[in-house]
Write a structure and sequence with these properties.
This protein is α/β, with parallel strands linked by helices and about 210 residues long. It is globular and about 45 Å long.
Length: about 210
């Protein structure tokens, strides 16, 4: 994991993360999961789960019979997630502190759905992280990725603004640019991939089925 990103998510960013991110991305996350085929009883693996902002949307679909395994490298972010889990009495969520670029399939976890939102664009070795997510999802399971990207066309003039806003959370021009390569990787490893753009083209969601 990049040392700069480690420093960011070991700081006060963790305690104020929900307030900052929910305002901009809450409705986009909800939209992504509403378009998923996620169903009651599913096992969902969430990479870069952070403070658990995705959890309510997922639990709404999988119910109490489903299970979430959240993985994140940041102890400070996971502490916030633990508070959220305790406050809401969620008893079907497991949190694991680990680097998603070095996660592999070492837990022998087989998930129905793999999720990563607002994580891969701040990871230099995003390819390893993506393949590790993929390796823990069953064949024909669903993959959901939501992240920042460089807007195109006339909207590209907004890229400096969105990158500047994302810098506080580890975002960068290179990271936003990497999303294009990641989307190409997804197209090559997933069937029926669908992509939608939000936030004036600066945020995307891709959903597809593992080949």
């Amino acid at each position: 994991m990049n040392s700069t990103v480690e420093q960011i998510y070991s700081s006060k960013v963790a305690s104020g993360y929900d307030r900052s991110m929910s305002h901009f991305f809450g409705k986009f996350k909800e939209k992504a999961f509403s378009n998923s085929r996620m169903k009651e009883g599913d096992v969902v693996l969430v990479f870069c789960c952070g403070t658990g902002l995705d959890f309510p949307h997922i639990l709404h679909r999988i119910g109490s019979s489903g299970k979430i395994t959240g993985v994140d490298f940041s102890e400070a972010m996971l502490e916030q997630a633990e508070k959220k889990i305790s406050k809401n009495n969620w008893n079907n969520i497991e949190l694991i502190r680990a680097d998603v670029t070095d996660f592999g399939n070492r837990l022998n976890l087989v998930a129905d759905i793999g999720v990563c939102t607002l994580g891969l664009s701040i990871i230099p070795d995003f390819k390893s992280a993506y393949h590790n997510l993929l390796s823990n999802v069953i064949d024909k399971g669903e993959i959901i990725i939501g992240d920042m990207q460089l807007a195109s066309g006339w909207k590209a003039r907004l890229n400096p603004v969105t990158i500047a806003m994302a810098k506080r959370f580890g975002g960068s021009y290179e990271g936003h640019k990497n999303s294009l390569e990641l989307q190409s990787m997804m197209a090559g490893t997933l069937n029926d991939m669908k992509k939608k753009d939000f936030f004036l083209g600066s945020y995307y969601v891709c959903i597809g089925t593992k080949q």
